[in-house]
Amino acid sequence: MTTREPISCALEVQFHYEIAFTEDVFSPANLLLATTLTRAGGASAEKALVVFESAILQERPHLPDEIAAYFAAHPTMPALVCAPVPLGGGEALKANCGAVDRLHVLIERYGLSRHSYVLAVGGGALLDVAGFAASTAHRGIRHVRLPTTTLSQADGGVGVKNGINAFGKKNFIGTFAPPFAVINDFAFIRLLPEEQQRGGYVEAIKVALIRDVAFFAQIEKDADALLRFDPPVMQKLIRRCAELHIQQIADGGDPFEFGSARPLDFGHWSAHKIEQLSGFQIGHAQSVAIGIALDVAYSRRSGLLEAAAAERILLLLEKLRFRLFAPELIEKTVDGELAVVAGLDEFREHLGGELSITQLREIGVGVEVHEMSPELLLAAVNELREREARS
Questions:
Q1: Backbone phi, then psi, for 165, in 5-degree steps?
Q2: What is the DSSP string of 116-163?
Q3: How far apart are CA 33 and CA 328, in angstroms?
Q4: Which residues contact 235 (CB under 8 A, 6 or more apart)?
Q5: Of 24-33, 65-74, 86-95, where does mean pLDDT reach its minimum?
Q6: Rounded to a whole number, what is the largest CA-CA distance in the chain?
Q7: 274 and which of 142, 171, 259, 287 could share a cystine (Cβ 3.0–4.6 Å)?
Q8: Torsion sign (Cα): 298, 300, 305, 308
Q9: Where is average pLDDT lowest: 57-66, 161-170, 177-186?
Q10: Does position 45 have pLDDT exceeding 70, yes or no?
Q11: How far apart are CA 349 and CA 50, in angstroms?
């Protein structure tokens, strides 16, 4: 049998997108969105579909009219194909393909092309769904994210991942597809309930712990102002958190996660399992706080992290009013093992190859480990349970 030389090639595709910061993005006098949607050229012949999270209507009942009026005030923008479309939010929206199918139907019905735009206004779950629909219609339509929560403006809305849940696993179905642009409108933050306003703080703590000790110290210093929801302090935190996330994605050498290391998922291997075990009654931010606390306690017990540093981290999480323990941490399987430990196997499966979990060597410095001791994990869980009981 003759073996012939293979034909090989190497492709390099450059993506460029900006994260812009503004207030009152749909005010006709604010030109940011209009400029964003016309910078690719040929916009007057193109179309735009806008979807938004219906919960926003509780505080901004006229949002659909504001969006329609903005497009009408800027006729050089792509044409709005229909009235803005309301969708639900939260993990329930990601539970099946229903919302994605609905968006695909609208994209086909109104004849959007690869040069059209799908704009999504809402929290992280809605952005995940809309981004997945946009990235899979015509193999990719331009997607513009307008995150409306602290969590999505600081973290989920600025990255390159889209997805929905399946088989009881978070983001089992999804794509890596960078957005065309991200616009963070701080005016939306002021409308949030207090718990949601605090949600993004935990992702800021996460990225500070693995990348920037000075940022962590700044969050400690600003903790009281953050609890008062001081706008300049919150905006500074959101901007720096988004910046660090983008630096990791752009400069970390693995933007589409072909390797096994995922430093931006520090604390998330157990957080995703906690969400699942709770039936998604525990939200993402709170689950990540517990996940961070678990990994901090484990890092200390494994000899990586000094006790004083671990205590600083746990105290900051508590000060910002995050719980460090949930009953789901001690839930057991039929075999008598901690159910949360199954999150390690799911994480390994999701990554492919060997297990690679980010732990802390010091504040601002993460390190990858490739195995975790069930005994140390159980000790860390019990430590957090006892800590909550004392508090």
A1: -90, 150
A2: SEEEEEE-HHHHHHHHHHHHHGGG--EEEEEE-SHHIIIIITTSSEEE
A3: 43
A4: 21, 186
A5: 86-95
A6: 74
A7: 287
A8: positive
A9: 161-170
A10: no
A11: 35
Cα 6 to Cα 15: distance, rounded to the nearest angstrom = 29
Instruction: Provide the β-strand partners of residue 119.
Output: 50, 144
pTM: 0.90
Residue corresponding to tokens 């193999």: 139
- Cβ atoms of 126 and 51 closer than 8 Å: yes
Checking if the pLDDT of 42 tops 60, the result is: no
- Using CA atoms, how far apart are residues 89 and 56, in angstroms rounded to an integer? 10
The yes-or-no verdict on residue 26 having pLDDT over 60 is: yes
* DSSP secondary structure string for all residues of 104-125: HHHHHHTT--TTSEEEEEE-HH
* pLDDT tens figures, 130-159: 999 999 999 999 999 999 999 999 988 998
HSE value, Cβ hemisphere, 13 Å, CA-based, for 43: 20
| Interacting residues of 4 by C-beta distance below 8 A, sequence separation 6+ | none
Q: Which residue has the tokens 């409308």?
A: 191
Dist CA 141 CA 97 (whole Å)? 18
In which band, very low, low, confident or very high, does the pLDDT at 333 lie, cut at 50, 70 and 90?
Answer: confident
Instruction: Please tell me the distance from the alpha carbon of residue 287 to that of residue 274, in angstroms, as a whole number.
Output: 6
- Whole-number Cα distances in Å, 186 to 126, 148, 349: 18, 8, 37
pLDDT at residue 77 in the model: 93
Q: Which strand (E) or helix (H) includes residue 34? A: helix 32-38
> pLDDT value at position 343?
76
Cβ pair 131, 145 in contact under 8 A: yes
